[in-house]
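A further point concerns the way the authors explain their paired sequence and structure data. Nothing conveys this as quickly as seeing an actual entry. An entry of this sort, consisting of the sequence and the corresponding backbone structure tokens, reads as follows:
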Amino acid sequence: MESAPQILLEKRGSLGLVTLDRPRQLNALTLAMVRALHPQLLRWADDADVKAVAIRANGGKAFCAGGDIRALYDLKQAGQLDEARAFWREEYLLNRDIKRYPKPYVALINGIVMGGGVGLAMHGSHRVASETFLFAMPEVGIGFFPDVGATYLLPRLADAFGSYLAITGARIRRGDAMAAGLATHAAPAAAFDGIVAALAAGASVDAALEAVTVAPEAAQHAGEHALIAEVFSAGSVGEILARLDRKAADGSEFAAKAAATMRQKSPTSMAIALEQVRRGAAMTFEEAMRAEFRVVSRIAEGHDFYEGVRAVIVDKDNAPRWRPARVEDVDPAAIAAHFVALSDDLVFPGQT
């Protein structure tokens, strides 16, 4: 983990402004950044002069491409799992306080928003997508699972769209994000500085955003929602694949591509993702975050996450050797065990 947080925190008039500043690393989130941001958000919540908070990123290519997974991999190799668990614990506490933030929280999302970036952006009150907005929860491709509140967020998308995003890791643009409710506003990236200036000058969030809002593009997945709803409402990963295969045999290129994509992912991770979406539909946000900490604690002691990072980030051979390698060999009891309570469960301030 880096010793110095690469995140800028400043008070501009009526605005608390956060700027992620690791552009060369696609603004990947570190524990140092979490530890800088979280207490500042709490101070701004208590500051009567601060009317809203905005979060943006430098670099243009990515808002935040996720957590710094290479750093987490290196901690495992160094035998420092406790520090990795500290990252996830503190990150999840931050996600919860963003979700419950008492003031407008405006995420100005330009470029890639994935993984840990979703936790910083998608739980606030206002989520502004630029023309280069690109959303994904691609964790099943590295033997991980969609965390940072996805257990709560994804089940609440209509037509099993959240299950589709979780299990395939599919990327979506602004039109789909607006249609699904992941983004609340569309605005050009060139307007983001003006939004910051207006909020700093005391303008209401609604007025500042309405002045620059544009009509989003058409949703690229609009024509596939019926198929997604039918296929990804299945009760197991195996049945989802079987349904996709039948649709592909009937001529659906979308189904064929989705099935081929899934067959490259970690079978264990896909099963966890499906289970978390199923369970998360009935959870409060806090319950979802606690469930995620239970899951990540088990994944941190397992095989597939480190093998996925090795294949994609370290050796870059893109040939992960999953355990088990086949969807059919995933043990449902092993998946359920990921969600069992821990002796050191995630606890939120004021709770026991």
Remarks:
- The longest strand covers residues 7-12.
- Residues 81-99 form the longest helix (19 residues).
